[in-house]
């Protein structure tokens, strides 16, 4: 980032947000949420980030100055898919969510690591490769959210693990950031292609 003050504000705001999400999970407040309120919280946070991006020039400029590999690096957190598989093995999460969504997240995280290490965005096929990964990653996370919503509405107990720590951080912190970074990556790739 070119703006150290903007960088500090974003880092500080992210840490504060994380701490609030942690407190909500640790206090058990997230366990009191029944569908569709977890989904409303998740999409409300995505909407907040998008509105902040749209209306705050400083925030938008700071975010757009972040190296695309850093934004892709956020998606390395999607190795949480292994934890989904573990919880499925204990019969704590349903197959459709844990196995299908878990493996999707693991693959997206693995390809993100390959991109960061081996594919410069400035290379000939870089923008297209990042675009395809970003598209697949966005489809995967939306599939996971839709599946979680469908299962939670049909049987709220089946998705109860998502409302306990550490997984309560997904709807209240991580998934909104993941969806938001996918959108920012598309914008950055569009700007790169427009300049080419």
What features would you describe in this structure?
- The protein is mostly helical.
- The chain has one domain (4-195).
- It has eight helices and no strands.
- Helix 2 crosses helix 3 (57-64) and helix 7 packs antiparallel against helix 8 (169-195).
- The mean pLDDT is 95.
Topology:
Blueprint: H1 4-27, H2 37-55, H3 57-64, H4 68-73, H5 81-89, H6 95-118, H7 126-154, H8 169-195
| Average pLDDT level | 95
End-to-end Cα distance? 22 Å
Tally of individual helices:
8
Instruction: State which percent range the strand residues make up.
Output: under 5%
- What is the number of strand segments? 0
Global Rg: 17 Å
Provide the succession of SSEs: HHHHHHHH
User: How much helix is in the residues?
Assistant: over 70%
How would you classify the helix and strand content by structural class?
mainly alpha
**Which runs of at least 5 residues are low in confidence (pLDDT < 50)?**
none
Count of spatially separate domains: 1
Characterize the overall form: globular
Major beta sheet, specifics? none
């Amino acid at each position: 980032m070119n703006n150290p003050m903007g960088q500090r504000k974003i880092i500080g705001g992210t840490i504060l947000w994380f701490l609030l999400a942690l407190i909500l999970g640790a206090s058990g407040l997230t366990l009191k949420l029944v569908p569709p309120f977890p989904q409303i919280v998740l999409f409300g946070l995505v909407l907040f980030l998008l509105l902040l991006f749209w209306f705050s020039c400083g925030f938008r400029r700071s975010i757009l100055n972040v190296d695309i590999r850093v934004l892709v690096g956020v998606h390395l957190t999607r190795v949480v898919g292994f934890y989904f598989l573990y919880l499925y093995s204990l019969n704590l999460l349903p197959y459709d969510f844990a196995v299908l969504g878990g493996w999707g997240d693991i693959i997206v995280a693995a390809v993100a690591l390959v991109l960061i290490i081996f594919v410069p965005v400035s290379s000939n096929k870089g923008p297209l490769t990042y675009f395809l990964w970003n598209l697949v990653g966005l489809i995967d996370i939306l599939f996971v959210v839709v599946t979680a919503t469908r299962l939670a509405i049909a049987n709220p107990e089946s998705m109860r693990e998502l409302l306990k720590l550490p997984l309560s951080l997904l709807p209240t912190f991580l998934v909104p950031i993941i969806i938001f970074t996918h959108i920012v990556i598309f914008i950055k790739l569009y700007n790169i292609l427009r300049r080419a």
